[in-house]
Structures are given as C-alpha cells and as structure tokens.
Specification:
- This protein has 270 residues and is α+β, with helices and mostly antiparallel strands.
- It folds into 3 domains: 57 residues, 2-Layer Sandwich (Uridine Diphospho-n-acetylenolpyruvylglucosamine Reductase, domain 2); 123 residues, Uridine Diphospho-n-acetylenolpyruvylglucosamine Reductase, domain 3; 64 residues, Alpha-Beta Complex (Uridine Diphospho-n-acetylenolpyruvylglucosamine Reductase, domain 1), CATH 3.90.78.
- The chain contains 5 helices and 20 strands.
- Strand 18 and strand 19 form a beta hairpin.
- The longest helix has 19 residues.
- The two termini are 25 Å apart.
- The chain binds flavin-adenine dinucleotide.
- Flavin-adenine dinucleotide binds next to strand 3, helix 2, strand 9 and strand 15.
- The site of flavin-adenine dinucleotide (FAD) has 30 residues, from strand 3, helix 2, strand 9 and strand 15.
Length: 270
C-alpha cells in the first residue's frame, strides 16, 4: 500500500492523495470499517485534500459461465461482461454496453439504462464484511432507482447473474442501438456520468437546461452543452466540480423549487 493520487483512479481525473491498495485477488483480503471501496471510479469525485481512509481499488477481473448463470468478479468491467454475455446468447445485460463502471459499482448503485437495470438480473451478491464472506440472495435485496438496499457494509467481491437464453444476433443489434443512442446523447470528455438523480420522474438535465446553465463553467468544471446533467472536467480541481454542483442546486431550486440530489458519490472533505 502506498500514497497515490486518487485522480488516477477516477474518470473525472482530479482528486487528492490516499493510501491506495489495488486488489487483483480477493483471497486473503480483509475489510475494516471505514475502508473506501472503488470500482472503476466512474461515479465518484474525491476531494483535492484526499482522504486518510484506506482506499481499495477493485481490479479483480473475470467471469465464469455456467448455462444461464454468470459469476463475475466485482472489478470486472460491466460493459465487457455485457458484450461477453451477448456473444454467448445470454440476454439481460445488453443495455449495459457502454457503461464504464465495474460490476461491483453497478450493483451498489443499481446501474441502469434504456429501461434495464442490474438488479433485474442479479441472483446473488458476495460481500466481504468485517466478519467474513456473506452471500446474499437477490430476494434479500431491494433494487430501486440507482439504489440497492440490503447490502451489508463491506466489499462486494463477486456477483452471480441469472440471464435468459436469446438470439445473439438480436442481442447484438439491440446493444448497438443502445450504444448509438448513448453516443448521440452523451458528451465525450472526462465526467462522472449523470451528476444528479431524476426528481419525481423528471430528468435533472431538464431542470438544469431550463435554468440556462448549459455551458456554465467554474474553473475546470463545465456543464455540458450536449447533456446538461453531465459535468465535463478539463483540468482544474475537484473543488470546481463541487462548487458547480452547489451552483446548479441553488439555481434549480430558485427557479423551480426542486431540490436536486447528487447521483455521484463523494470521497473526503470538501
Ligand atoms: C460517460 C459515463 C456514462 C455513464 N452512463 C451510465 C448509465 O447509463 N447508467 C448508469 O447507471 N450509470 C452510468 N454511469 C455512471 C457509472 O458508470 C455507474 O454508476 C457505474 O455503475 C459505477 O461503477 P464504478 O465501478 O465506476 O463505481 P465507483 O464510482 O468506483 O463507485 C461507486 C459506488 O460504489 C461503491 N463500490 C464500487 N465497487 C464496490 C465494491 N466492489 N464493493 C463495495 N462497494 C463498491 C463505491 O464505494 C461507491 O460508493 C456513467 C458514467 C460515465 C462516466
């Protein structure tokens, strides 16, 4: 374990130092209360001050196929897993092609797109807690919009998906359509994906755009012109992102009386 800049582990490319441990194998791993877990860091912003906590970056990668069941290591790319399932004629994850996160991060936030969500296909989650490994069946979990309840505190080490047999050509066409829609609606550049959660079923981008905030910049953080719920980061620091999210919340509340809540996760003090 050594001090590293978290910027190197986050899609926004900013963030201060912490004791970082890269986890390639979960055998022998222990979890201590207060540890911070990172998957691919695509939904997370870390303070410029970093954190005193130990940060575990999950790079345990791999998947085993057994009929319609797939057991994936938590650090596996969700998008790569979705592509592998499509090739094998297994349906259920085709909406996930192009989502840049890990399997573990996707379970924590019940990642989803185009009407699909991770929780629809999960059958079991393995979590390393302070007391050891716990296997939780999907019947003990409650998946809702960008949220999974019922997970114990700890490190998700693996996830079992139960998928459905389907025609690989049809699945590939479906995934290509989703990927095209993603490319045409989402900006390129460094971001943490959608910044805010939808509010009462209305996308946060709707409010941000109508508040006239597209293109608004603070330091290196800018509201995307293409998709108002994306903050594009082209330099600067993590505090620029935080200041811009605060400004968006203030303006949207002043204009519409709507209190936006972050979808992104924060690490450390701001
Ligand atoms: C360009 C872009 C497009 C995106 N599109 C979508 C989209 O369409 N739909 C969508 O839902 N999201 C989208 N996202 C957001 C993001 O990719 C997802 O939320 C993804 O599931 C996060 O996974 P991650 O591994 O990057 O999580 P991280 O950012 O690393 O972590 C997110 C949370 O999960 C926790 N966590 C991660 N791994 C583990 C683990 N193994 N054990 C315990 N806790 C863990 C972290 O502590 C943190 O609280 C997008 C992001 C980007 C940058």
């Amino acid at each position: 374990m050594s001090k590293k800049f978290l910027s190197g582990f986050l899609s926004v490319g900013v963030g201060g130092e912490a004791e970082v441990e890269i986890i390639r194998m979960t055998a022998g791993l222990t979890y201590h209360r207060g540890d911070i877990i990172l998957g691919r860091g695509t939904n997370t912003v870390a303070s410029d001050l970093g954190t005193d906590a130990r940060v575990l970056v999950m790079r345990n990668i791999g998947a085993e196929f057994d009929g319609v069941n797939v057991t994936a290591e938590s650090g596996t790319s969700l998008s790569a897993l979705a592509r592998a399932t499509i090739k094998r004629g297994l349906g259920g994850l085709e909406w996930a092609v192009g989502i840049p996160g890990s399997v573990g991060g996707a379970v924590v936030g019940n990642a989803g797109a185009f009407g699909g969500a991770v929780g629809d296909s999960v059958s079991e989650v393995k979590v390393l807690t302070e007391r050891g490994i716990v296997c939780i069946g999907a019947d003990k979990l409650h998946f809702s919009y960008r949220k999974t309840d019922g997970l114990p505190e700890g490190i998700i080490t693996g996830v079992v998906f139960r998928l459905k047999r389907a025609d690989p050509v049809m699945l590939a066409e479906c995934a290509a359509g989703y990927d095209e829609r993603r490319r045409s609606s989402q900006p390129t550049g460094r971001s943490a994906g959608s910044t805010f959660l939808a509010c009462n079923g209305i996308s946060a981008g709707y409010y941000i755009e109508r508040a006239g905030l597209k293109g608004t910049r603070i330091g290196g953080a800018r509201v995307s012109d293409k998709h108002a719920n994306f903050i594009i980061v082209d330099g600067g620091c993590a505090n620029d992102i935080r200041l811009l999210t605060d400004l968006i919340k203030l303006k949207v509340y002043a204009e519409f009386g709507v209190r936006l809540k972050e979808e992104i996760n924060y690490i450390g003090e701001f």
